[in-house]
């Protein structure tokens, strides 16, 4: 951690996320907020440790919308602000993001979003956050490696400062959790104490209402046009000269696979590496493709670049053949062998390793899948408390009872040997969907939800059950920390992200205040009580809530150290 | 590291919680000390919770991809015997050396778990050389814990000269990466591997 505070301009090996933090520190960030989520969690974990002593305000917010809105307030008050989250968080906060692009920022503002192609640590969908660049008109940069993580954050703050607009850095798992060498710049902490901002009233800028909001949209589009001019000249959209009439356009981690493939093929093809995803430098692209016969667009997930490039080619070089998703899959992350195969097909060149045959041989190995597991007593005595909740449910639940899961360690309940859930979607949805099932069927429904998830998005859904009179049984898995992402505090813990004491909000108080009458707090180790209470509550005419309270075993072990 | 060697590709496989990321950090640090270019890739979150885990480390003169290519691994370090087979995707008969901890953790819910003989047989198609070692047993016997079996295996890669990094770089890297109070224990495990009898 001290390494991030080292002031000498030397070479370090940093995780992409560490390089983001370093870049933000070098830019002189004042305010940082986040909700933890893999693969972006390290941003919060690191600031949580270093913010206080370096004049920075940091918080783990209740959810990503609260995090973004806090950041907007900080920016409106003139502070340099970073807000970080995983891709799903961007969905949650998008309601605040769009108007923020309209009002624009005051203090420079960077939004860091980490996608997870292949869903290594994400359940609900394989999301491509680049779609939000179009939706919100937010300038977006895509780094490939740790050095670019650092450099792009600094550049994003500069763009934001110059054009008074929030700027997004879009990363992916293989960038965020890649370690590679970085030459660090200098840190300039003027003062170790937090710099207060000042909200200067400017209703014309900060109040979005028609008809002014349409004026704002016009101004936003004008800003984007100006930023496009900057993108045309920017060195992060770089052309690497090469031989022949066949070229490659790529961005993000895909660029690294392209470089690796060309190294192996001992070829020097012209490459356009795009650091900007939005807005695109159209003239630069036109120039790049003007002398080409064929271009291969190498990008992960949906073909956003490919579509844009096909459109641009229509205007400038209509004979150009554009290849992309015909050679590269749209599902799953890219891998070096996928890109190598695609490039060799694109060039009509043979490679001397038979990937297909090798894969077939590999698939013959008949090894069962080893799924993630809840902590056993061996790993963290007495073992994860969810084991007990799951087995209580198994004992009680009949064929006609529906069980909904939610987001957190207890997603493991959907895997063997548990196979517990009948539906699993997004944060807070176990409760929201339970209500809909209860209103439309005669079946019994149990919704499981973790404590951090309850605060994040469960409360409005609970209120909806009471308001609209449904009666699912909700079990709040209250392990007293945000478990899955590495034990970050949530509003029920009584500690802030800067380790200051704060009010610990009691889940039972919220549940009672929502008008829920059937409420029990049970330690899952009281197994009989848990079983009997589930049975009892399933028969209730009104909504019921069990708070299954026992500390995360792994967190308890950490606290003992 | 030999000057003519273009790049060196390592995949470490095991089960979440076995210390794969610590091993990755040590090897990265050692490669950095030898002024090599390097890129590594790891997984966090759900991917780490007691399921199969793999991390990738690549170093050499000019490295781009954070992932080892299919069939492209030079060295596989496996911390659990059955997990070894998942690394076969990255390994080829032409060049892959497998260093395998014989530690066995059954796969919960599996119809069938594979024996050492079956593992060994499967590996033949994907390996130039396989080395099975009772790292967990040895560490438990010598130190009363197997949490350092990864470090023991790392010591073995050095003693067997299957990892082209200097012993001194690795030892310095261990010193910088592991918490100070555990350094002596880690160093002992690293050095103990030198006396391993095949």
CATH class of chain B: Alpha Beta
Assign an overall shape of chain B.
Answer: globular
Q: Which spans of chain A have pLDDT < 50 for at least 5 consecutive residues?
A: none
Structural class of chain B: alpha/beta
Rounded to the nearest angstrom, the distance between the terminal CA atoms of chain A is: 19 Å
Rg over CA atoms of chain B = 16 Å
> Would you count the extended β strands of chain B for me?
6
Do you know the CATH topology of the largest domain in chain A?
Rossmann fold
Radius of gyration of chain A: 26 Å
Relative helix content of chain A: 40-55%
**What is the name of the CATH architecture of chain B?**
3-Layer(aba) Sandwich
Largest interface: A-B, 55 and 52 residues
What's the CATH architecture of the largest domain in chain A?
3-Layer(aba) Sandwich
Order of helices and strands of chain B: EHEEEEHEHHHH
Helix segment tally of chain B = 6
Low-confidence segments of chain B: none
CATH superfamily caption of the largest domain in chain A: Thiamin diphosphate (ThDP)-binding fold, Pyr/PP domains
Sheet with most strands: strand arrangement of chain B: 2-3-1-4-5-6
Nutshell version of this structure?
The complex is a heterodimer of chains A (561) and B (198). With 561 residues, chain A is of the alpha/beta class.
Report on this model:
The complex is a heterodimer of chains A (561) and B (198). Chain A has helices spanning 16-27, 41-50, 64-76, 87-103, 130-136, 146-163, 173-176, 203-206, 212-233, 252-265, 282-290, 304-316, 336-347, 355-363, 386-396, 429-440, 451-467, 507-513, 527-538, 553-560, and strands spanning 11-15, 31-34, 57-60, 81-86, 109-115, 140-141, 167-172, 178-183, 238-240, 246-251, 271-274, 276-278, 294-298, 321-323, 401-405, 423-424, 444-450, 473-478, 518-522, 544-549. Chain A folds into 3 domains: 2-233, Rossmann fold (3-Layer(aba) Sandwich); 238-362, Rossmann fold, CATH 3.40.50.920; 386-560, Thiamin diphosphate (ThDP)-binding fold, Pyr/PP domains (Rossmann fold, 3-Layer(aba) Sandwich). The model of chain A has no long low-confidence stretch (mean pLDDT 96). By secondary structure, chain A is α/β, with parallel strands linked by helices. In chain A, helix 11 packs across helix 12 (304-316). Chain A is built from 20 helices and 20 strands. Chain B is of the alpha/beta class and 198 residues long. In chain B, 32% of the residues lie in helices and 19% in strands. Chain B has helices at residues 20-33, 116-123, 135-143, 149-159, 167-177, 183-192; strands at residues 7-15, 37-41, 52-60, 75-78, 97-101, 129-133. Chain B has a 6-stranded mixed sheet, covered by helices on one side. In chain B, strand 5, helix 2 (116-123) and strand 6 form a beta-alpha-beta unit. In chain B, helix 3 (135-143) packs across helix 4 (149-159). The mean pLDDT of chain B is 94. Classes of the chains: A alpha/beta (561), B alpha/beta (198). Chains A and B meet through strand 8, helix 10, helix 13 and helix 14 of A and helix 1 and strand 2 of B. Strand 8 of chain A pairs antiparallel with strand 2 (37-41) of chain B.
